[in-house]
Design goal:
about 625 residues, five-stranded antiparallel sheet
Amino acid sequence: MSEFREHDELLPGATARRHQELIELRALHDRQVLQLKRLNELSDRLLRSDRPDAMSTLFAEAIVEVLDVSVGAVWLFSPHADFSDPAWDIVGIPAGPRLSERGYEVAARLTGNTAVRLRDTAGLLDDTTELVDVMAAPCFSRNGTMAAVVLAANTATMAGMAPGLTGDESLETVSLLAEKLAQVLDSLADRRRIDNQLTRLRESEERFRLLAESAADAVIESNVDGVITYVSDARGMLGFDTRSMIGTPLVDLIHPSDVQQTMGQRTAALRSGDVSARLELRLRTQSQGYRWMSNLSTAVLGEDGGLLGWIDALRDVHEAKKARDEVRASQEMLRAIIDTMQDPWVLLGAVRDEHRAIVDFVYVDANEAACRANGMTRAEMLGLRISDVLPNMVEEGFLSRCARVVDTGDPLSEDSVAYRHPQIDQVLRFDFRGVKVGDGLSFTFREVTERYAAEQALAESREHYRLLADNSSDVVVRVTPYGEMQWVSPSVREVLGWDPADLMGQSTAMLVHPEDIEFVNSRHNTDEDWITYETRVLTSDGSPRWMGIKARRAQETSGRSLWVCSARDIHQSHLDRERLEQSEQRFRTAMESAPAGMAVVDLDRTFLQVNPALCQLLGVTESELIG
């Protein structure tokens, strides 16, 4: 009896505990049902959502609602971060300044692929909020990369008010949310790829539509026997009515010289497994002329692989073909001109460093003269750099001057540039010409060593001549055939009082006495190379002075003839000679009119001169006495 009494005493306590367990199980069941309901609502919201940029916010709110916690957070990682703006969100506590970076710290604590409980969470999200019951789960995309991290927790202040994240079912729910997020991100990625493909497809279709609308092509379909069965529109291109072309063999439209090539390319395409052949051919027009066409010829094959016919897409390229032929002929002519040039010519391409500065030039093209000048064949020369072929030119600044041409567009023109040839160790002289062409320059050069030496010799000769003329007491004048004074020596200032600059470009007539101009002109109007004469020249004050002129005919380098005249002051001697002649004339007159016999004899008593009175006195003639 006592045993029954003890059993009766224990029964109410056991019943109460069992009742409590049933209540907890019912609460857990209700809680799981509520979580499943909220998960279904989340799925519905995801399906209805047209804002993929709200994923982080949507799932952060879902964590709080589904798990009935106070804190929910989501971080999306690249490239899935592109789906959310922002790429992270948190619900339950304010966002700290570094909260966006905490996702990587949470991810570093996750070692598996399921939800785990995190320990030591002080300062995990910020330095002030204390978290409890922290659970986190990684979110992996289908390619195995971590796409996101989800976190659920309670704050210490809210822990007593929430049921808490206890038991394995909470971990399973967090994992389930992570999986759901992974599925959504993969779906979004798929949707984005599909959208991108659709966008490209629409763009491709639009481009095709624009090309089709703007194309002036005609399409011709022919059967296996080569007979035309369909023509889209050939009136504008060939002039034929479309219906008149049906039933016509295609070869009747092809230029006879192009038939074999066209059929051969079709056959070669079929043998190679490529059902298309692109070629250019000439088609006959209604006016019996021919026009060049670009043709994409595509074979039509049956299910058994047998040939059913051909579809030819034609584009009129007649004018383009003519233009290409003209360009080709022009290029060939230019090539011939370049190769026959006696002067070396090269086309140089700029070589630039990472800062876009020109550091060298490479030979892109060269003519035969340039190859001979460098002792190379064209194949050997092309591709080399200037620094490889002409290292001394680089050291002497030639490279920088060429770079300036490319950078500024200003042409290069230099004459008699010195260059020490490394092979012969001799200084040569060159003329350089260069103009910009694209990112390089067209460059010609000519060796002028002999010309430079001749110019130097000529310059020295001219300097010697100038010194002689400047320091001579004679006046030296260079005169054109038209009488224009090109140059007058400085001595004209002392002799005639003129400034040389005042006479340059003036006519010699301003210096010649008016009464002597005709005489002077007659003396220069001769084929003789040397002439001498005397004339009166006017000084700066207008008074005349007698000058002795020696003139020599010369030629300039241009071939034009001129006179080089040397004028010497003979004014006093000319006056003395005139006075002597006058004195002699007076003596001769007095002697011949004297009544007495008179004679002039030398020391040998030889008669030099006799008068008529003496001849009459002696009864002889003057010629008998003289001598």
